[in-house]
Amino acid sequence: MDSCVIPLRHGGLSLVQTTDFFYPLVEDPYMMGRIACANVLSDLYAMGITECDNMLMLLSVSQRMSDKEREKVMPLMMRGFRDAAEEGGTSVTGGQTVLNPWIIIGGVATVVCQPSEFIMPDSAVPGDVLVLTKPLGTQVAVNAHQWMDIPEKWNKIKLVVSKEDVKLAYQEAMYNMAMLNRTAAGLMHTFNAHAATDITGFGILGHAQNLAQQQRCDVAFVIHNLPIIAKMAAISKACGSMFGLVQGSSAETSGGLLVCLPREQAARFCAEIKSPKYGEGHQAWIIGIVEKGNRSARIIDKPRIIEVTPRGAGAGGQEGTPTTTPSPEALA
User: Fold this and answer.
1) How far is CA 286 from CA 104, 224, 240, in A?
2) For 68, what's the count of Cα atoms within 13 Å in the CB-facing half-sphere?
3) Which of 95, 99, 291, 309 could cross-link 56 (Cys pair, CB 3.0–4.6 Å)?
4) In degrees, to the nearest 5, what angle opens at C-alpha 277 toward C-alphas 331 and 2?
């Protein structure tokens, strides 16, 4: 499971808790703080939990930074983390700060809740549909952005992507990584989700396999569609086996939720999450099906790549190309 669930001695309540941390991957310290917080909270959201009672911040300050760098960068990271926590309806009440050769940021998220407030990730059944709520390709976008200043690496990809494409993809990746999965968590209850996980370091296939192994029924997950930030699949292909984006092994940071939904609810979930009442930027795609199987997951040999156009690339196309969400029947 993405979070630990500890039954308490009193009142039928459970303590749900998670922790995570990682090294900075974007240039903006404030956005890095927001991404770190979103990544920690996502483990709660993957279980359908929308409220967090408390957060702690884990911070490692690099010994290699000058005093001036430290005084500028670290407060921005902390503010970003706190602002994201506030957006999630919670607050940071403490934590731990240490000196270290590297910058590290992360935290702990804790909630005490009733059993009705979380969805155990073990009830997928044959006929369910797989939905993903953020596009893939964040690792590729971040690396490509770094390579613009490294000629020997940029030369590997310059024939398939422009620097403007990479800048737009990087901004899109950063925006998505900083976005909370809280809306999707709430809609998991509305549309009777059977299981979910968030997509992070093991890639879409690794997390799909982990989720499939937790199911009580003998099921298999089959992924037909991969929504990917525009041009990132081409970069991955140009780099050979480095990323494995289309193969499902490319790591993501603070990725979307992979949700198992009843067939009749999946399209409604995808439509509802895009409603303006939840704010801008929320997306969802039907990417596969649940069938009878041996608790495994796979991506078909030639998955359909849905190129998700970055927000800064002009009007239209944020849904991705093709722009229509495929029906569950089309995946059967």
Assistant:
1) 35, 9, 27
2) 0
3) 95
4) 55
Crossing angle between the packed helical segments 182-190 and 29-45, to the nearest 10 degrees: 20
Query: What's the one-letter identity of residue 14?
Result: S
Closest Cα partner for 310 from 301, 296, 321, 326? 321
Give the global pTM.
Answer: 0.93
- CB distance 196 to 118 below 8 Å: no
For residue range 20-71, list pLDDT tens digits in order. Answer: 999 999 999 999 999 999 999 999 999 999 999 999 999 999 999 999 999 9
Residue 109 backbone zone (phi > 0: left; psi -120 to 50: alpha; other: beta): beta
Tell me the per-residue pLDDT of 233-279, one tens digit each, with 9 for 90 and over. 999 999 999 999 999 999 999 999 999 999 999 999 999 999 999 99
Structure tokens that stand for 69 in this block: 């760098």
